[in-house]
Amino acid sequence: MRARARGRLHQALSGGLAILALALLIGCSDGTQVPLLDLGKPASPQEIRAASHRPATAQPIYRFGFDLRNAPQEDARQYQPLLDYLQRTTGLAFQLRFSDSADRLITELQEGQLAFAAIGAGSYLSIQPSGRLVPLVHGINAQGEAGYRAILVVAPNSPLQQVQELRGRRLAFGSRHSTQGYWIPRIMLARAGLELRDLGAYFFTGSHQACAEAVITGQADACGLQDTLARQLIASGRLDQLAASDLYPSSGIFAQTELPARIRQQVRQALLAFDPQGRDRDGLYHWDDTEMAGGFAPAKTDDYRPLADWAERLKLLNPGGGEPCD
User: Fold this and answer.
1) Rounded to whole angstroms, how far apart are CA atoms 160 and 165?
2) Model confidence pLDDT, tens digit, residues 13-56
């Protein structure tokens, strides 16, 4: 009897581990009601977690992660309507997955826990050596460009007038994997003849919003921001522009290479057909504030070659960024 019981327990554990392995990339749902994000009010971290974690069942759900841009609640409220659109258009089921840091998101993508993700070029290039991700589309901004810029910003009363004057100053970045919050600002510094060791101090805040707040509250003399948020804060009088970068490939939607090609293509076609300025506008939340205000354009690996070259030159793929962090 005990031998049979142990055998049944072993089978149950083995089966459970197999189900867990399969569920890393594709989640499941039995239709049990779970709290959904209320797009009419700010969502709490508890609501995000409740909406992001659903019970396991047989129906596949494709997990969708995202880089932090603003507050997590704000980002989640922007992406959830996009997932609703994809679900209506493709007939597939999607689950918004919240990662509390850029490093955590990178780990989840590298481990295959997410099927799709809206991330910047920096995050993608950090993962690219593993061969796990393939670009589907990248965003078209409000000016109709399939790219974006970083903007170095300072306080309105700052004496700083040019990038070279950041020598000896305190500089805030978003996250180490952020294209607009770290990679492009590093390129801007390099073109001005500056390295990290030339700064008085620098630190990472984890998001664009936190980076801007560091300058607004006087914790930093400048920071590198994504252009959409920077322009809003400049227009409101809370920040001033120090310098704007060249245009680089914008954030986009990436898929795990392990996904069937037909699923990737199905999602890609739906994203290319997405019309946030027209027929698909209803139900979107502040979509004009994203880097994808005009929808999406096709993306391919070669689009990221110029940034990859800079990343190698500046050692941006090194977790330490090539320099100690003050």
Assistant:
1) 6
2) 334 433 333 334 544 333 323 333 344 445 555 555 555 554 44
Asked whether the domain spanning 150-246 has the same topology as the one spanning 60-145+251-310, the reply is yes
User: pLDDT tens digits, residue range 62-75?
Assistant: 999 998 777 778 88
CB 87: neighbour CB atoms within 10 A? Answer: 15
Fold classified for 150-246: D-Maltodextrin-Binding Protein; domain 2 (3.40.190)
Note the helical H segments in 54-118.
72-90, 102-110
Angstrom distance (rounded) from CA 251 to CA 254: 9
For residues 234 and 241, the answer to whether their CB atoms sit within 8 Å is yes
Contact 102, 175 (CB under 8 A): yes
Helix (H/G/I), strand (E/B), else coil: 277: coil
pLDDT at residue 44, rounded to an integer: 55
Instruction: Give the global pTM.
Output: 0.69
Does the domain formed by 60-145+251-310 have CATH 3.40.50.360? no
The pair of structure tokens assigned to 316 is 């941006």
- Amino acid letter at 240? D
DSSP 162: S
| Domain ranges, ordered by start, for the chain | 60-145+251-310, 150-246
Give me the pLDDT at residue 49, please: 53
- Cα 311 to Cα 202: distance, rounded to the nearest angstrom: 19
CA 66 from centroid of its chain's CA atoms: 4
Query: Cα–Cα distance between 176 and 8 in angstroms, integer?
Result: 48
Distance CA 99, CA 104 (A): 6
SS3 20: helix
With 0-12 / 13-18 / 19 or more C-beta atoms within 10 angstroms meaning exposed / middle / buried, residue 279 is exposed
End-to-end CA distance of the chain: 63
